[in-house]
Amino acid sequence: MSKSSKYNGDDIWKNNVEKINSELFTLTYGSVVAQLCRDFNNNYHEVNNQLDKMGYNIGLRLIEEFLAKTGVRRCQTFRETSEIISKIGFKIFLNIVPTIENWSSDNKTCSLILPEPNPLTEFVELPITTDSKISKELWYSQILCGVLRGALQMVQLDVDVNFVKDVLRGDDRTEIRLKLNKVLKDEIPAGED
Amino acid sequence: MSSYYLTIIGTRDNPLYEVEFSSFKPNSSSTSSSASASSIPGRAQFAPDVREILPFIANSSLDIIDDSQWSTSNFNLGRVDSFYGLVVNAFITQGNVKFVLCYDNVGSGTNSKYDDNLIRQFFIDVNDLYVKCLLNPFYRVNDAIVSPEFDIKVKLLARKYF
Questions:
Q1: Rounded distance, CA B6 to CA B102, Å?
Q2: What confidence tens digit (pLDDT) does each residue in B113-123 have?
Q3: Which CATH number do you get for residue B15?
Q4: What does B143-160 look like in DSSP terms, one character per residue?
Q5: CATH (residue range A20-183)
Q6: Which domain holds residue B47?
């Protein structure tokens, strides 16, 4: 897409991003998830919720950094937005570029396919032999959904984000579903008209 | 054809993992052809009465392992014990987890140096697998290792080296 090629995720990743050791990152996130599982007594729905909330709070702030580093302008269409998310957003923060597929006919729903290896899930193996529930209920990388939801909300896009497939569960690929509900208007607070 | 028994023992002397296997390489020496034809390659062939005391043999060597870890700077402790023709080799990880390998040395003896070297390599590779397993956030130190993937990889290593 012409618009997104103007901003180069590779260059920003190389020159303008502070990097940390990926194993440190992976293990830190792993400890967070494992600790949440213990804290909520393996209630994985609640763990998903918590991860989503943490991600949401990250996303609310992360968007500022994203805009400051990239100088991306307002997108015209949701397709353009998704391109920016994958080629620049994921690139500069995680150094991966998910592919975008499965557009619905109204251009409001699409899938992000995370490439393997997913930096969040390196070394991870769900303990399916001791707890069969975990592979049906836990979305290990749920925090990503929260981040996307939070970040997009700050640019007036109300989206639903959720996982539909995860390689960790034995699926063939890792897929995040992105659904645009509506474009929020800059509303005047009630009682100020 | 030698049979092997590998066990991983945690820091509180609790068993984490065990596996039995035998050498996959066909033996040139005097195994009768009918017996080896009926056996599955890799199936351990300990006598039943030996088989049931294998965990005891492994655990009885723990004291020796604890002592000998201070006499060398290597993680591989080599041959630490033997028990009626069964030889016990051991390896200790940085986290004080022990790998113990018991095997009957049928037909070896001439090339025991060679065997020890193989076992050392085997231990180092098993240690790699163990570290990978340890990096999994859902695994805690001293949990039993039940991952099927770990099991398969150890067996592949066994096949590669023995």
A1: 6
A2: 778 888 999 99
A3: 3.30.450.70
A4: -----HHHHHHHHHHHHH
A5: 3.30.1380.20
A6: 3-161
Tally the domains of chain B.
1
pLDDT digits (tens, 9 = 90+) for B45-75: 888 888 888 999 999 999 999 999 898 888 9
Instruction: Print burial letters for A86-95: b (CB count within 10 Å at least 16), e (below 16).
Output: bbbbbbbbbe
pTM for the full model? 0.81
Chain A / chain B CB contacts < 8 angstroms: 31
Q: Contacts of residue A38 in chain B, CB cutoff 8 Å?
A: none
ipTM of the complex: 0.74
Residue B85 structure tokens: 């023709």
User: Which of A40-49, B98-107, B134-143 bottoms out in mean pLDDT, i.e. has the lowest?
Assistant: B98-107
Tokens of residue A23, six digits: 């194993």
- Look at the block and give the residue holding tokens 């193989």: B118
Cβ contacts of A114 within 8 Å, gap of 6 or more: A96, A98, A141, A173, A174, A175, A176
A:93-152 residues touching chain B, CB 8 A cutoff:
123-127, 129-130
Which residue bears the tokens 């092997």? B4
The domain segmentation of chain A, as residue ranges, is 20-183
The nearest CA of chain B is from the CA of A88 a distance in Å of 29
- Whether residue B15 is preceded by a cis peptide bond, meaning omega within 30 degrees of 0, is no
